[in-house]
Protein 1
Amino acid sequence: MTKPAGGELGRSGVLRESDTSDEFLFLRAWMRAPLVTAAMLPSGPFLSRAMAAAVDPAAPGPIVELGPGTGAVTAALVERGVAPERLILIEYLPEFCDLLRRRYPTARVIPGDAFEAPEIVKTLNVGALSAVVSCLPLYAKTPEHRGRLLHGMLELGPKGMPFVQATNFPRSPIPFDRAMIAGSASPRIWLNMFPALVWTYRLAKA
């Protein structure tokens, strides 16, 4: 197989570029728009794998990733067994959208505000989702806005579908009513560049 210009194909057929580091791209984006980019660096491998571990690749339906950035968590999902064509990646920054399209040509990359994801996904007519994964900078929005995002996305899948969120804060980054939503946090992931938690939310069973 001929090696593509500017990168190489992994075993999954995903293009991995080698000319510019993801860390540099992420830091440059963060410096330009710190409230849009959640952190100075992409999610590390331990955090990315912890987020992907909350997703069942055997569950049917598309998987939506909110704010995938350079695709660190996307790569962990693919490594876990999620076919790239099942992925709907909603990303605000055009340069990250271009990068994701090159790396995951069979995924659906949608430029837009991921905080409007419920409305965006409804227009796609893709059926019930199997999971939502998010690295969004939630504290840039009001608690009400965060709550609407969580409820709106959970309503697009069956009860039990996970909404998986990374955070550096000790408490839930999204306010939720425990009578309606079950939420749980992972142990703190100390080996990330900035120690993090993974919160998983699901609609409470009737």
Protein 2
Amino acid sequence: MTKKAKTAAERDHHERIAKMGCVVCDALDLVQTHRTEVHHLREGQGASQRAPHYIVVPLCKACHTGPMGVHGDQTYMRMAKMDEIDMLAETIRRLME
């Protein structure tokens, strides 16, 4: 299956998410030292699948692709006592503010 290009609305949503602070750093009361990236949730998806473009959360580079991040050993998530659904819930709460 080929990747579907993002729509203008999806690009706008990603820009809004990327302007937020990292949900994991905030949960751990850490000062975010890397820029925010958009993470597509993997929870509930197939092995190599990712969620649609609206099912995303803001993560800094360390919490996203760093060795202890979501795509690493997930230490930061365990420390924050969060899974991807918790991160999504926090992201939605922020969007509603």
